[in-house]
Amino acid sequence: LTLASSVALANSCPREMKAIDAPLPKAKLSAEQKSEVQKLRAEGESHHKAGKHAESMAALGKAKGILGIK
């Protein structure tokens, strides 16, 4: 079960990154918010590459929250 969860999260990370990347250029955010989204997006990718998928999803989830994405 743990292995299946890890695989599911690993596959979700890139999809979550794309969900952030698509609206980011046109998002109506303050410079501070945009910077925070970019930082969280980068953290998410870094965690994903390190195999820390739960941490990746947490960072990406925060970025999506700032963007107003569910």
Oligomer: single chain
Radius of gyration: 12 Å
User: pLDDT under 50 segments (min length 5)?
Assistant: 1-7
Proportion of residues in helical segments: over 70%
Shape: globular
- Structural class comes to mainly alpha
Mean pLDDT: 89
Tally the beta strands. Answer: 0
User: In percent, how much strand structure appears in the residues?
Assistant: under 5%
Instruction: Spell out the helices and strands N to C.
Output: HHH
Number of helices: 3
Largest sheet: none
How is this structure best described in words?
It is a single chain. With 70 residues, the chain is mostly helical. The protein is built from 3 helices and no strands. The radius of gyration is 12 Å and the shape is globular. The N and C termini lie far apart (26 Å). The model is unreliable at 1-7 (pLDDT under 50).
